[in-house]
Specification:
Helix content is 40%, strand content 16%. By secondary structure, it is an alpha/beta fold. The chain has an eight-stranded mixed beta sheet with strand order 4-3-2-5-1-6-7-8, with helices on both faces.
Length: 439
C-alpha cells in the first residue's frame, strides 16, 4: 500500500474492477471545492433523508475514526461492517499488487458499501482536487457541484486560482449538470464556466448565495431554479453557510425537476432537512461546563472551535468572531495547530490582533493518513512573531496543557478562547473532551 499522495486514476479503476465495479451502479452527487464541501454534502444528505430516501455519504477527512467518512442515512458504518469490508478491499489490493493508497482503499470501501446497501443516492466528496482524485470514477452523475474555491494544496493543484479551478472542474461530465457555488475570485468563476462549456455540460447553474432575513436567528431566504424564493432557518453558523445552504437547495431543486425518482421532494422537506443538518467542528461552541470538568477548574467562557485551515476559511472565522462582538476589539486567546505545508503566515495575518495571545501545540498522527504531519509548535510561534512581533505566545506540550494555559489567561484577562487550524486538531479535542459527534 502506498503511503504518500500519488494522484491518478489507474489504481482505483483497477481496484474497482476487481470488486465488480460498484461505482457503475450508483446514482451520485459529486462535490469538489476548497471550502464548504462537507457542509454542502451534509445539507443535501439531510434533505434527502427527510424526503424518505436512503443515502450514502462519503466525506474526508474523517473526524474521529476512518469509518465515520462512510455514512448510511447519516450514521457511520458500524465498526464490524467497516472491518469486514476493509478486509475484503485490502485483500484484493494486496493479492493483485495494486499498491493503492489509503485514500483509494477508503474510497473503494465506501463505493462497495453503498452498492451493497443499495442506497438511492451516493453523495461523494472529493478528497483532493478533482480531475485525478480517487473519487472521480463515475461515467455519469446526477450532478457535479463545485463549492467555493481558494488557495489550498497548491503543491498538488497549482499556485494560482485558475489552475486550481481547472483541477476541480475535472469532475464535470459531458451532458451532465454542474452547479457552481458563489466564488470569491472572478477568475475562478470564469475558469469554471469555461471548463463546463468545453466539457459540454448540459446545464451550468450558477448559485446566488442566500441572504439573511434575521441574521441573529439564522433566518435566511434563497432562490430556487425558477427564481422563486424560500425562507429557511440555517442551523450552522457563519456567513459561508449562506452559500453552502443555497448550493445544496439548488442541487435538490435540480434533482426533483430532472429525475422522476425525486419528483416528490417538497419545499417542506427542504426546509426541515436544512434545519436538521449537523456538521460538527465548524464554528462550533463547546460549553464551558465540559471544559471545566476536564481541566478541573471553572473556566470563564465557552470555547469556539473551527476546522479552518486555509486563508479563505480563516477569513470566515475572523468575520464570524467580529460579527459576534459587533466589531469590538476583543482579546482572543488562540489555540493553534496546523498541517505542514499550510500558509500559516497568511493565516496569522488574517487572524491575529496586537493584544491577542497564541498557544501553539501539535496534533496526533492521523489514522490512515501517514503523509499528514503537523507544524512544530516552535515554528508556529516563530511565524506568528514574524507577523506580530510582540504576540504573547506559548508552546504547549499537549492539548490539555494548551487549554489549561489559554483558559488560565482568559479567566484572568478576559476575552475569548478559540481553537482552530486543522480538522485533525478538532478531532483531538473531541477525543479529549469525550464529545459524541455521531449523535
Amino acid at each position: 500500500m502506498s503511503t504518500v499522495i500519488n494522484l491518478g486514476l489507474e489504481r482505483i479503476f483497477s481496484l474497482l474492477e476487481l470488486i465488480n465495479n460498484p461505482h457503475k451502479r450508483l446514482s451520485v452527487i459529486h462535490i469538489a471545492g476548497t471550502n464548504g464541501k462537507g457542509s454542502t454534502s451534509a445539507y443535501i444528505d439531510s434533505i434527502l433523508l427527510q424526503s424518505g430516501y436512503k443515502t450514502g455519504r462519503f466525506n474526508s477527512p474523517h473526524l474521529l475514526e476512518l469509518r465515520d467518512s462512510i455514512r448510511i442515512n447519516g450514521l457511520p458504518i458500524s465498526k464490524e461492517d467497516f472491518l469486514k469490508t476493509s478486509e475484503i478491499i485490502t485483500n484484493v489490493n494486496s493479492t493483485n499488487n495494486l499498491e493503492s493508497s489509503p485514500f483509494e482503499i477508503l474510497t473503494a470501501i465506501s463505493l462497495y458499501w453503498f452498492d451493497k446497501q443499495q442506497v438511492d443516492v451516493s453523495i461523494v466528496e472529493v478528497g483532493l482536487g478533482g480531475r485525478l482524485d480517487a473519487t472521480n470514477v463515475f461515467d455519469n452523475v446526477l450532478s457535479s457541484i463545485i463549492t467555493s474555491l481558494g488557495m489550498d494544496h497548491t503543491n498538488f493543484l497549482g499556485d494560482n486560482i485558475e489552475s486550481i479551478a481547472k483541477e476541480k472542474a475535472g469532475i464535470m461530465k459531458k451532458n451532465g449538470n454542474v452547479i457552481i457555488a458563489p466564488q470569491i475570485e472572478e477568475k475562478a468563476l470564469d475558469t469554471l464556466k469555461r471548463c463546463a462549456e468545453e466539457v459540454g455540460c448540459a446545464k451550468i447553474l450558477l448559485v446566488d448565495g442566500a441572504k439573511w432575513e434575521q441574521e441573529r436567528s439564522g433566518l435566511a431566504s434563497t432562490k430556487f431554479l425558477d427564481n422563486t424564493y424560500i425562507k429557511i432557518n440555517i442551523p450552522l453558523p457563519g456567513d459561508i453557510q449562506l452559500e453552502n445552504s443555497a448550493t445544496a437547495i439548488f442541487a435538490i431543486d435540480l434533482l426533483r425537476k430532472t429525475e422522476k425518482k425525486f419528483a416528490n421532494i417538497t419545499n417542506k422537506d427542504i426546509i426541515v432537512g436544512i434545519e436538521s443538518t449537523k456538521w460538527p467542528g465548524r464554528l462550533q461552541w463547546v460549553d464551558a461546563s465540559i471544559l471545566s470538568k476536564v481541566l478541573e477548574f471553572s473556566v470563564a467562557s465557552n470555547l469556539l472551535i473551527d476546522g479552518a485551515h486555509n486563508p479563505q476559511a480563516v477569513k470566515s472565522l475572523r468575520t464570524f468572531i467580529d460579527k459576534q462582538y459587533e466589531n469590538k476589539l476583543i482579546k482572543i486567546h488562540w489555540i493553534f495547530a496546523a498541517t505542514k505545508g499550510k500558509n500559516i503566515t497568511e493565516i496569522f495575518e488574517i487572524l491575529l490582533n496586537d493584544n491577542d495571545s497564541l498557544t501553539a501545540v501539535d496534533f496526533s498522527q492521523v489514522e490512515g493518513m501517514p503523509w499528514i504531519s503537523c507544524y512544530d509548535p516552535k515554528e508556529i510561534i516563530k511565524v506568528a512573531r514574524d507577523v506580530k512581533e510582540n504576540i504573547d505566545a506559548f508552546v504547549a506540550e499537549n492539548l490539555r496543557e494548551a487549554l489549561y494555559h489559554a483558559y488560565t489567561k482568559c479567566n484572568k484577562e478576559g476575552g475569548l478562547v478559540v481553537l482552530c487550524g486543522s480538522l485533525y486538531f478538532i478531532s483531538d479535542l473531541f477525543r479529549l473532551l469525550q464529545i459524541d459527534v455521531y449523535n
